[in-house]
Amino acid sequence: MADRLTVGVAARLSRYLQVLTQARKMGKQRISSQEIAEYTNINATQIRRDLSAFGKFGKRGVGYNIDSLLGEIRKILRTQGQHNIALIGAGRLGQAIASSPIFAEHGINIAAVFDKDPAKIGDAIGNVVVSEYSGLADAVRDKNIIVGVLAVPASSAQFAATDLVAAGVKIIFNYSEALLETPADVTVHTSNPAVELLYALYFHLT
Amino acid sequence: MADRLTVGVAARLSRYLQVLTQARKMGKQRISSQEIAEYTNINATQIRRDLSAFGKFGKRGVGYNIDSLLGEIRKILRTQGQHNIALIGAGRLGQAIASSPIFAEHGINIAAVFDKDPAKIGDAIGNVVVSEYSGLADAVRDKNIIVGVLAVPASSAQFAATDLVAAGVKIIFNYSEALLETPADVTVHTSNPAVELLYALYFHLT
DNA sequence: TAGATTGTTAATCGATTAACAATC
DNA sequence: TAGATTGTTAATCGATTAACAATC
């Protein structure tokens, strides 16, 4: 536990967290490694092995208690607090992100939304009001924001990324298809459904 | 080449495809394994190894020609044709997806959009017009659609997924946080930025 | 007790990486 | 020639899986 998790283990634990959160919303109280496997496409043995590395969380013959397993995984991933993030872009995608429960469900709070279009300033989207783009650096500092989500066109993505980095953001979620140049201490996650689709199609076609 | 790719190799090749597509748009003609590594966070040796398993595509001292490497990877992934997909949900997220170039850039064509809201029928979003939900099964058959993208609230996601499966769709992209039950021959990809964020935060915090 | 499911072992396979000769 | 970068080897490490005793 003193050691850092490997990338693979951390990624899988996050996915278990998602399944458990949803299963709880559906009213379930217990879940088996086999059920988690069906939702995640991760082998059931691997799931049990991942979990048993941190303790004996399950009951033989019964499965895992969802509430207590959620707590254990949150402890392991150190994700029990609230995290503030900034959203850049209040267009259709930005609005969709801001009004989705996906982030709030996991303790992630969209603390500020920025847009360069003066017509959008002041609009309420989700639970926040769109702010002047010039206030970005102050908001990042004041609200202790380390994550920025880019919901802007590819043509503006690099500019916005540069501004986020200058403001002190360390993790960028890029929803455009652009490639971003950032310093080595900044992590970029580019979401590209087309890439995932090509890869899913390969396995369908072969 | 007669063998099926492993999941890991296919996933990485898809990501190289994305980087090459964007690098070409930026006017580059050559790229090194080191440059691809910077954009993908995949080790440069691994990239060269992945590619050299299929042929000698690079030039020592020079790098890879982007156009020809694109062609080679498309051949390996068998993704040279056009693919028709169906989009369910013409709300903000659906509109954002339909008007993004991300799919078109990779030869994926949003061939039909459906919504249950009668007020949206007939609206143009992206290059398509929103159709009556009741036409889903016919469109899937007529347009040879095997991929469905769900841009609906979590509360409707299972219903829409069931309808897609009944219509013959084999790959579902789920943009809601809901867990979906599908037959074993249907693949579900759930996109959850919050899960990725938790995992990125772990590595930032440790 | 009978059935179910965990926790764990053991074996295999693929991913990862450093290093470097080959060669453009 | 000098510098750069590929293609490939070799070694290590983590992921994956089947199998099954333990035990709820």
Describe what this molecule looks like in 3D.
The structure is a homodimer of 206-residue chains. The first copy, chain A, has 8 helices and 10 strands. In chain A, 44% of the residues lie in helices and 19% in strands. In chain A, helix 1 (7-25) runs antiparallel to helix 4, helix 2 (33-40) packs across helix 3 and helix 6 crosses helix 7 (154-167). The longest helix of chain A is centred in the first third of the chain and has 19 residues, at 7-25. The first copy, chain A, has helices at residues 7-25, 33-40, 44-52, 66-77, 92-99, 136-142, 154-167, 193-205; strands spanning 30-31, 58-59, 63-65, 83-88, 108-115, 124-125, 128-132, 147-150, 171-174, 187-190. In chain A, 41% of the residues are buried. Chain A has 2 domains: 7-77, Winged helix-like DNA-binding domain superfamily/Winged helix DNA-binding domain (Arc Repressor Mutant, subunit A), CATH 1.10.10.10; 83-193, Rossmann fold (3-Layer(aba) Sandwich), CATH 3.40.50. With 206 residues, chain A is α/β, with parallel strands linked by helices. Chain A has a 7-stranded mixed sheet with strand order 6-7-5-4-8-9-10. Chains A and B meet through helix 1, helix 5, strand 10 and helix 8 of A and helix 1, helix 5, strand 10 and helix 8 of B. Chain A binds a DNA duplex (24 and 24 nucleotides) through residues 6, 8-9, 32-34, 43-46, 48-49, 51-52, 56-64.
* Strand coverage percent of chain A: 15-25%
Report the span from N to C terminus of chain A: 41 Å
CATH architecture of the largest domain in chain A: 3-Layer(aba) Sandwich
Low-confidence stretches of chain A: none
What's the number of helices of chain A?
8
Give helix % range of chain A.
40-55%
Total separate domains of chain A: 2
Broad shape of chain A: globular
Count of β-strands of chain A: 10
Using the coordinates shown, work out and report the CATH topology of the largest domain in chain A.
Answer: Rossmann fold
Name of the CATH first level of the largest domain in chain A: Alpha Beta
- Specify which chain pair forms the largest interface: A-B, 64 and 64 residues
Order of helices and strands of chain A: HEHHEEHEHEEEHEHEEH
